[in-house]
Model the fold of this input.
Amino acid sequence: MAADTPSIPKGTRDFSPEKMLRRNYLFQVIKETFEKFGFQPLETPAMENLSVLTGKYGEEGDQLIFKILNSGDFLSDYRKQGASGTLPESRQLLPLISEKALRYDLTVPFARFVAMNKGALAFPFRRYQIQPVWRADRPQKGRYREFVQCDADVVGTPSLICEAEMMLMIHEVMSRLGLSEYRILLNHRALLKGLALTAGLEGQEMAFCTAIDKMDKIGEEGVVKELEALGISQENAKNHIQSISGQVSLSAFKNRHSSVSEIQTSADEVQEVIRLSEQMSMPAGKIEFSPTLARGLTYYTGCIFEVKISNAQMGSVCGGGRYDDLTGLFGVPGLPGVGFSFGVDRMYDVLEQLNLFPEFLGSSTSVLFCSLEPQSLPYALKAVSEARAQGVKAEIYPDEARLKKQLTYANQKKIPFAVLLGATEVESSTWTLKNLDSGEQWSLSPQDAIQHLNAHKIHG
Done:
């Protein structure tokens, strides 16, 4: 009986070497930008205690956390505690079977790290983190259950310069990747809170934000129905949706809500972020005020933003915002923070869609050493070791094979050079270096060949 064809879980992917070269190129651009702005690297465990994650993302987010089953026989342990009869409901059952979970994002683990290490950190503390996260979401185009986030956060200062610098970091990454048709949508959570209050939804501000956040998915009519379900009239709901829909200038919005101090203060902060960004060379017009932007996570308190690519079919590729008391949830209040994340998987899809990856990103190997006959193998083994010792990414073809087969292998791996070693090279202590793209080849001393390879070094 034939074995079943292996598969991987839905919402996850394998990455071939060719794709990894492209992903590494993307990671490198982002990493270099983070470090250019003074951010330091950090890593946290793939799993966190479930208590660390729950309650930080809203009810919907909590449902998407991947729980990890405890080891052992939980049912037997449950009965040993003296319990009998039917099993409890799922909410009561969860603590019995799961105490840990895969991280949902990188921000909450970062806040947990800061709370645990506050005495050893210099504030404001800037960190970047490039690691995978997991969400039990329904897989679809641009949405995966396992994906990599590239986060940059600053904690320990309320300064809006931090938001402005993040606008500049986004601009630099987008520019380096050739994504010129991008927009940064900017809003403020307190502004949305002010709108909720004017709608008569005091105490339901988070539910109001959650409804507004679904605008792209369910449209204005769907959001109106959600607001009605919160207890306001259809007419009131429609008026509020109309006041924030379409192109709304910041000044017009302020004038319309001039009597609401919370809206005025938060709108002033949005205006200041734009002013500071442009003062630091951000191109004018790239940042747009977007009063419908809500971002569903519960921990945001100030400016929030997302990045969309105008000429690609994709949702937001980057997002973030200010969270002024996230560390307070871990017993360390008074540490305001702001951060954002690049969604690398979506950005990869956009670059592929727009054909913006560089034509040649290199190979993990710069040169293939080919032994032309068994007698020249010892010389080839010594030669490849000498090349590696001087920084050349080199490999040797391990099997006895005709030169044509060896060079076919090099072409399949996009290795740009080959060193051909036979009896002539052994006798003359030379290497025959061949450019596999142009077909040119030269007889060189080992040192000259290595110098040539290093001058044309391939960064994989």
About this structure: The chain has a mean pLDDT of 89. The chain has two domains: 17-47+104-353, 367-455. DSSP finds 18 helices and 16 strands in the chain. The domain at 17-47+104-353 is CATH 3.30.930.10 (BirA Bifunctional Protein; domain 2).
